[in-house]
Specification:
With 535 residues, the chain is of the alpha+beta class. Helices cover 12% and strands 26% of the residues.
């Protein structure tokens, strides 16, 4: 005879009392679900020592969900397995044994997606075996149980789930240990459940969101906190410039700010107020290659010798026309036409003292000047082009009197000085990538200046053009500076400011679609055309 005394009479009521104590305060807490009510069909197998056959039964559940994905559950299950005992003649007699198990378990739920989960469970309970046959050979009585299991839920709707579970029921009695295995399949209904909100809309519910104020559209990790690959404090997903340099100041879109437009972002720019058009170093500060106080990019003569006096364009002057630049000229008032030493002083002249007087020989006269140099003679006091050296005149034998039409051209000169042909100005160019005129440009521009001075009724446009090797914006900016450089040169030569219009066209008007080095060189040019009546 096998008997199982009732050893857990007070354990189940204690579990019920604990559940009641927990339910009250938990109702007000946020969690995915509140109450779970379920039922299932089951198949229960029994340890061989019990001599019970496997049987079909049922399961009923009532659970309360706790914070941190835990839930507390009460469960009752039943089945009616069969066994046999021999009668007095040895014939088997079938006997039905009713089994009842009541338990309380704690579940940890692993949430998958919005409505699915898997779980593990552990708990304690009581298993009772009863039969109408008093034969002592039949198992009967109650014993304590340890419960363990695992299962899963599949959401059909937000409140209805299919639930499947496997469970081990280990019964302990005074002389026997029984390990019964069971499986069940059924449904669970979530009652009074209010899904946990997602206040910031990042897909992580408030109970798991460690950063509940994430901006809308930001990419977040599993904790609900924004990702920020470039460390600019603008989250991925919102950051329109995700590769910002570390240390750069960015706007609300995550793109670097550049207050002075020098391509060095604020935060890294040590000189944030650089004037537009100035070339800067990696720190964002203006470069001044020749140290004349006019920064590169604005300096039209960026190779000025150290110490020379320059104008607002960065170009040096030569007030007395002796070929020694102002600032370097130790005798700045040397008479025009006299030979000077490298320091700008005439032979025998001390620095800062007037030059010795020289009586000119009446039998010697200057030779006639070429058209481009004649303009300089016609306008004493006009500045010479930067770095252009003017040799002192050389005495020559007295020539025959020059005819009137060969007089030096100028504003009051009666003779012709040439004609402007619209199109490309030959030999006019710039140092690569800059608006600094090359010395080879001076002859052609001097001739144009003489023609414009001779006929003030003519207005022309000088235009600079580039190839397509740069961006459209950069090409437009550079050609605008180059056209201004030509305009400023002509004005410095004496052409009225309003008589010349300058414009940069970038790469919008190519001469040829050829992209070879030869074709690109042809597209880099300076052109001139009439915009008012002319020849």
């Amino acid at each position: 005879m096998r008997t199982y005394p009732l050893t857990t009479r007070y354990r189940l009521p204690a579990a019920l009392a604990l559940l009641v104590i927990w339910v009250g305060p938990l109702v007000a807490q946020q969690r995915k679900y509140l109450v779970e009510l379920g039922a299932a069909g089951a198949y229960q197998s029994y340890a061989s020592v019990s001599e019970l056959d496997g049987a079909v039964g049922g399961v009923g559940r009532l659970g309360v969900w706790l914070p941190a994905n835990l839930s507390l559950e009460l469960q009752g299950s039943f089945a009616s397995p069969k066994t046999t005992i021999p009668d007095l003649l040895g014939n088997p007699i079938p006997v039905v044994v009713k089994t009842r198990t009541f338990s309380g378990s704690l579940l940890y739920n692993f949430l998958i997606g919005s409505a699915n989960s898997i779980y593990l469970k552990a708990g304690i309970g009581s298993t009772k075996y009863s039969t109408d046959n008093p034969d002592p050979r039949i198992i009967h009585g109650s014993s304590g149980s340890l419960i363990g299991g695992a299962g899963f839920r599949i959401g059909v709707t937000p409140a209805l789930m299919i639930r499947a579970e496997g469970e081990l029921n280990r019964n302990k009695s005074a002389d026997k240990t029984l390990s019964n295995l069971g499986v069940n399949l059924g449904v669970s209904v979530m009652l009074g459940s209010n899904p946990i909100p997602d206040s910031d809309g990042d897909g992580i519910q408030n109970n798991r969101d460690r950063c509940p104020d994430t901006p809308s559209g930001a990419q977040v990790d599993g904790r609900g906190c924004p990702s920020d690959e470039d460390g600019d404090r603008v989250p991925n997903g919102i950051d329109r410039c995700p590769g910002s340099v570390v240390g750069a100041t960015v706007d609300a879109r995550g793109c670097p700010k550049d207050s002075d437009g020098d391509n060095i972002p604020d935060g890294l720019d040590k000189c944030p107020d650089t004037q537009p058009g100035v070339l800067v170093d990696p720190n964002g500060c203006a470069k001044d290659s020749d140290g004349d106080g006019i920064p590169d990019g604005l300096d039209r003569c960026s190779e000025t010798p150290r110490g020379a006096t320059v104008d607002a364009l960065g170009c040096p002057g030569d007030e007395d026309g002796d070929g020694v630049l102002d600032g370097l000229d130790r005798c700045p008032r040397t008479p025009t036409g006299g030979a000077v030493l490298p320091g700008g002083c005439a032979p025998g002249q001390a620095a800062g003292q007037p030059a010795p007087s020289v009586t000119p020989e009446p039998s010697v006269t200057p030779a006639p000047a070429a058209p481009d140099t004649a303009l300089r003679g016609a306008r004493p006091g006009a500045r010479n082009p930067p770095r252009a050296q003017q040799p002192a005149p050389t005495p020559a034998p007295t020539p025959a009197p020059a005819p009137p039409q060969a007089a030096a051209p100028g504003r009051n000169a009666p003779g012709p000085v040439g004609k402007i042909v619209p199109g490309v100005i030959p030999a006019v160019g710039f140092a690569p990538g800059t608006a600094r005129l090359s010395p080879s440009s001076y002859v052609a521009l001097d001739s144009i200046a003489a023609i414009l001075i001779a006929d003030p009724t003519v207005t022309v446009e000088v235009s600079a053009h580039s190839d397509n090797s740069r961006s459209a914006a950069e090409s437009m900016r550079l050609t605008g500076l180059q056209a201004d450089a030509v305009h400023d040169y002509l004005v410095l030569k004496g052409v009225p400011y309003q008589q010349v219009v300058s414009r940069g066209y970038g790469s919008t008007v190519p001469r040829t679609p050829d992209t070879t080095p030869t074709g690109r060189a042809a597209n880099r040019r300076v052109e001139i055309r009439f915009v008012a009546p002319g020849p």
